[in-house]
Structure formats: C-alpha cells, structure tokens
C-alpha cells in the first residue's frame, strides 16, 4: 500500500497511542437514537417478556442500559435459545432483526424453547454507526476472560449461568461496503499494520464454528434465508472474506479462540449471520426479514433434531 491510501489518523506502521485514539473519538458523531430505535421497542415488549438489565455503560456523559428480553415463563426442562444482535453497532439489521423476531415470531416458540434475546450489545456504537466501542475496541474480538470491552464482559456475565444449557446461539451481523472503505483501514491504522484491500461478498452468508461444525444446520439456515434474499457466492479463489467456502454460503472460524460472540456458550448449534445491506438487490426490510428467517430456521432445525 502507499501513504495516499492510509487512514487519516496516525502514522503508517505505528500503532495508535492515546493521542490517536482521542483524535479518532473526537470524530465520532451520534447519528441515531438507541432510546427511540431500541429501548422504546423493548418497552413495548415488556407485556410479553421479562426485561433484564444486565449492565450499564457509562461513556462520558452518555449512559446506556444494556437490556435483554427473557421468556416470561422460563422452563428449565426446555432447550434455551440465545439471540444476539448489534455486537457491531453499525450492523443495523442485526439489531432490528432481533427485535423484529421478538415482536413477530417469538410467540411461535412459546412452550417449546426458552428465549434470551440481547438485541443491541453495543449501543454507543449503534448510535454512531460504528464497529468499535468508545475505546476503539472491537467487542466481537473481546468475548474472553478479562475482556477489554465492557459490552462483551456484560454479555458474558449474562450468559454465564446458562453457558452449558444453550442449545442454539445465533449472532446477527452484517458485512457492509464500509467494512472495506472505513473499518478495515481503521483497524490496520490502529494496529500499525498495512491495509490489504479485499472484496465485499454480495449476499448473505454464515460463519460456522470450525471447532464444532454443523454443516446440515448451516445449510438449513441458508435454505430458509435464500427465500428472502440472495446468498453470497464464493470469489475467484473459492473464498468469502478470505476464508474457504465449505458449503454454499458458509465459511468457518474458530469462534471461541477468536473471542467472537457466537462462541460464548457451549451450544451445539451456533452460527453468525452476515447480511449484505449495500447490495442493489436487497432492501432494509429484506435484511431484517433475512435475520428473522435465519433465527426461525435455526430454532426449527434444532428442535427437529433433538
């Protein structure tokens, strides 16, 4: 790469210090409201769910309650399903898809599963349409002991009592054009590494757990989502975002090893969804619907194979 392509904060080849992080933070602008777009919806759902405050972020003058929806009638004899969204705050359909599932489809699974839904893990980033938290830390590489991200640590505490009892965990994400134009260049600059351009896959795909792959489960989710939006093809190298495609629309990561949200439980069936909202072939409504379809398909498959 050349200096002209470098991110506008920091010095090429040198990781950010406090000054660079402060400059980055000074550029972050609130674009939308966690209160009106997330908390108000959760408030409407109080009639149907228990609402759990599992943490509170205090970022400067900003205060963000971290809220989860929990099945009102919890039955330890039933399998538990964990749905997470907004680990990366800019990935809108992860948040809105989780809320839409809670509003429109959760009742279909009453008396069949226990539901725990954390729709917006990173509210500061949601408001600023960003990948990182206030401290320039990626929560989705931080789900580990002594986590540097308060958002991640709070979710880990929430799920700790259920860690070995969760059957399904589906973590709702997006891959966007801004990954290539903003977030990956910022990551390279923050860490003092060269930025290597890559391509953005056009369509929906899934990330399975390479340490416990469930190919039939992943394909059931892909089949359901294909009815709503298109599935990302492999690139010329047979890859999606640098990882080999192991089945149509599926790649694998070692989830727990990488500190990813989908690795926070011992669930047999786990996946990370990746919707592509910038495609000319997809609308915001389709992206939300694709997330809902993925959650339903994941639960349906698990229930049918238990």
Question: In words, what does this structure look like?
Answer:
There is one protein chain. With 306 residues, the protein is an alpha/beta fold. It has a single domain (3-304), classed as 3-Layer(aba) Sandwich (Aminopeptidase), CATH 3.40.630. Helix content is 31%, strand content 20%. The chain is built from 8 helices and 10 strands. An 8-stranded mixed β-sheet has the order 1-2-4-3-5-10-6-9, sandwiched between helices. Strand 7 (239-240) and strand 8 (243-244) form a beta hairpin. Helix 3 packs across helix 8 and helix 7 packs antiparallel against helix 8 (284-304). The longest helix is centred in the last third of the chain and has 21 residues, at 284-304. Pfam families: AstE_AspA_cat. Belongs to the peptidase M14 family. Its cofactor is Zn(2+). Residues 30-306 form the Peptidase M14 domain. InterPro entries: AstE_AspA_cat, Peptidase_M14.
């Amino acid at each position: 790469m050349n200096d002209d392509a470098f991110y506008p904060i920091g010095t090429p080849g040198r990781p950010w210090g406090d000054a660079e992080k402060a400059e980055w933070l000074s550029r972050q602008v609130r674009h939308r409201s966690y209160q009106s777009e997330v908390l108000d919806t959760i408030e409407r759902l109080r009639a149907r769910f228990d609402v759990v405050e599992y943490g509170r972020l205090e970022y400067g003058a900003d205060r963000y309650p971290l809220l989860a929806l929990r099945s009102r009638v919890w039955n330890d004899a039933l399998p538990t399903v964990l749905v997470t969204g907004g680990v990366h705050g800019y990935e809108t359909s992860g948040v809105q898809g989780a809320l839409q599932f809670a509003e429109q489809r959760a009742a279909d699974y009453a008396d069949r599963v226990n539901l725990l839904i954390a729709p917006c893990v990173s509210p500061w980033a949601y408001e600023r349409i960003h990948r990182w938290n206030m401290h320039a830390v990626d929560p989705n590489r931080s789900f580990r002991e002594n986590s540097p991200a308060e958002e991640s640590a709070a979710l880990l505490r929430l799920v700790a009592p259920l860690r070995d009892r969760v059957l399904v965990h589906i973590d709702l994400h997006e891959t966007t054009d801004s990954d290539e134009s903003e977030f990956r260049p910022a990551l390279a600059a923050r860490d003092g590494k060269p930025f290597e351009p890559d391509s953005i896959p056009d369509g929906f795909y899934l990330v399975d757990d390479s340490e416990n792959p469930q190919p039939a489960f992943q394909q059931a989710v892909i089949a359901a989502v294909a009815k709503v939006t298109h599935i990302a093809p492999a690139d010329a190298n047979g890859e999606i975002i640098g990882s080999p495609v192991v089945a149509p629309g599926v790649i694998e990561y070692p989830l727990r090893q990488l500190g990813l949200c989908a690795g926070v439980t011992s669930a047999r069936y786990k996946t990370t969804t990746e919707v592509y909202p910038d495609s000319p072939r997809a609308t915001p409504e389709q992206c939300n619907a694709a997330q809902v379809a993925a959650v339903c398909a994941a639960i349906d498959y698990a229930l049918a194979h238990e």
